[in-house]
Amino acid sequence: MNVRVYVTPKKGILDPQGAAVERSLPNLGFTGVSGVQIGKIIDLTITGDGLTAAAAHEQVDDMCRRLLANPIIEDYTFEISEG
Amino acid sequence: MNVRVYVTPKKGILDPQGAAVERSLPNLGFTGVSGVQIGKIIDLTITGDGLTAAAAHEQVDDMCRRLLANPIIEDYTFEISEG
Question: Measured between beta carbons, which residues in chain B are less than 8 angstroms from residue A69?
């Protein structure tokens, strides 16, 4: 199964990377851009004998909490597709 | 308009961050995970007097090529929604 995880900074959390991009854009001539926030996409493939969608969902959620995201400062969502 | 940009490593390009995650997962008890690739999500808001969807599309594409992505090693796509 193919999994795509989206990890984004929680609202109100300082996002220095986003702030740096936002400050750089006017120097390149891009005006009117605000609220830049930078997060991560993690694509992966998960396989296993008799792995059900529900089991994959639980495993990916566990992976997010323990490695892929920092739940204190980041939100995460994910999509699982067969394939 | 709200914009979400997805930046992912091109196929075949070494992705050390993804490789590091992939090597860490078995140590945490997660098996059967392969093909880990890590990219970026950039959320931003773009405003302007009389900004059309077509003009916003062109501006975001330009931003991707010049700042947000490295077109040599990364692919990018984006979605623009009104709001």
Answer: none
